[in-house]
Amino acid sequence: MNHKELIHSDFQIKEVEAVVRRDAFTTIHVHVPPYETNILRNLFGRENVTVFERPSKTTITPEQEYDRLCAKYGYEVVAKVFGEDDGDRLMEIVEGLMAEGRLPTHEQTLEKAHETESTQESKGAKKR
Fold it and tell me: What angle do CA 107, 112, 114 make, to 5 degrees?
């Protein structure tokens, strides 16, 4: 997958729950993409961020993700975590997560065949 294929496309990727202990009296829970936890750990300390898997997904636009993170945390913080490459490293991480969410080709074929079979069965039921 190249960057041109990603332009203005929304993708579903898994999200995690990060529990951030900001100070002795403040704990916050946030749902973020997995790579965003690296920024939280950088800001609040590795020992103050606990990450839990979630069954839900979040929608992102990959080519806008670097800008979104810079607007949220500041360019300096994002550059410190992902490098000063204008988002190239972050894009590699996002592409990896998107590829991870895809089914292998043979499973996609089986899934499509099952959907077609179900559709044909329902059409047959309507004719009777």
Answer: 95
Name every residue whose Cβ is closer than 8 Å to that of residue 99 and which is 6 or more positions away in sequence: 1
User: Within 13 Å of residue 46, how many CA atoms lie on the same side as its CB?
Assistant: 1
Distances (CA, A) of 85 to 75, 80, 88: 11, 11, 6
76: tokens are 């300096």
127: its two tokens:
């004719």
d(CA 23, CA 43): 12
CB 61 within 8 A of CB 10: yes
Cα–Cα distance for residue pair 125/79, rounded to 1 Å:
58
- Of 85, 34, 78, 84, nearest to 60 by C-alpha is 34
pLDDT, tens digit (0-9, with 9 covering 90-100), for 3-47: 445 455 788 889 999 999 998 899 999 999 999 999 999 999 999
* Reported pTM: 0.70
Taking a C-beta distance cutoff of 8 angstroms, is the pair 10, 94 a contact? no
Rounded distance, CA 128 to CA 124, Å?
A: 7
